[in-house]
Amino acid sequence: MRKKLMTLLLSMSLFGTLGGCSITTDISGVSNDDVQASSESKENTTEDSKTIGILMPTKSSERWINDGNDMVEELQKLGYKTDLQYAEDVVETQVSQAENLITKGVDCLVIANIDGESLTDVCQKAHDAGVPVVAYDRLIKNTEYVDYYISFDNTLVGVQIGEYIEEALDLKNASGKSYNIELFAGSPDDNNAHMLYDGAMSVLQQYIDNGSLDVVSGQTNFETVCTLRWDGALAQSRMENILTANYSSGKKIDAIFSSYDGLSRGIVEALRSVGYGSADHPWPIITGQDAETATIKSIIAGEQTQTIFKDTRVLAAQAVKTVDALLKGEEVEVNDTETYENGVKVVPSYLCTPISVDVNNYKEVLVDSGYVTESELK
């Protein structure tokens, strides 16, 4: 009888311990090591530890997985509990996740939104519940109740891409030469996509105007060249249509402005299907953003040419500093109080610096810094 009683008590104790843990709604892709690390970190927290809700858009992009994991790790080091969830690019799912976290009583929300205009009501509910909101990498629009914005300098990202094309084609010394180019922008519901495109065109537009760059398809307006949800399959389909309609007579593409690695991979496949990557059709200059592992492999292989490295470790660390200062009532570090107007107010921001990466510097920037290993690139 005593053995049965002890077994029952141990079972009840274990159940109570598990019941007090904060877990995510989406646990797909979590390894045993992740669970163990999370459990070990939770042992260092106290019962009155504050909980941070972290909402990321999707696991389909390597960078968002890194962002989420980096933030969880840094917050738990400081003794915070975390609830990390992914919405797989479904706006309604992310809205529901945010509302549920507010109801559960999280102490702060960090949100990388799917649609920047979808969270007005969520931010109002967070404000009413006394929950501060930090916009992560993507600006939350049309609300006064977003407290801070942490991102990279998105205009500079575009400028760096534009300048890379400018230098690679030596456009300053074009001397009557004309190069064929096509343009691929990001998602129209992401403020970053607009700022990036404007930054790139601040460099490239002059060469389109003087004929040094020829957009053969004629597609230059953001509304025409944008790609919903930054979807690589949509970019591939559009590239295939452009090739069929404008390059079937033997014209060759010299450069492709692509604003994200996922788009670039789709573009590479479209080009490969019509013979690019051969001696007769060498790869054009193809840009990108995010320095994903698959992209660095593509750069090493001579397919994609360039990407923009946005170190998620730096961004996550800054977000954690912001959350920690907010919850402790301390001054929050910002470096931009003018740029990010969300339709209701200028959101105080901290902007990190991006780095342009190609085959010449990827080892120094990515491998030597520990962001990726040599073995991961093989």
From TrEMBL:
Q: What is its main location?
A: other
Membrane-crossing residue ranges in chain numbering:
none
Which InterPro entries does the entry link to? Bact_Solute-Bind_Prot2, ChvE-like, Peripla_BP_I, SBP_2_dom
Q: Where in the cell is it found?
A: Cell envelope
Can you give the residue ranges of the Periplasmic binding protein domain? 52-331
Keyword Signal part of the UniProt annotation: yes
Q: Where is the signal peptide?
A: 1-20
Q: Which cellular component terms (GO) are annotated to the entry?
A: outer membrane-bounded periplasmic space
Mind listing the UniProt keywords for this protein, alphabetically? Signal
Q: Name one GO molecular function term.
A: carbohydrate binding
Q: Which PANTHER family match?
A: D-XYLOSE-BINDING PERIPLASMIC PROTEIN
Q: What is this protein called?
A: ABC-type xylose transport system, periplasmic component
Annotated source species: Clostridium disporicum
Gene that this polypeptide is encoded by: sbpA
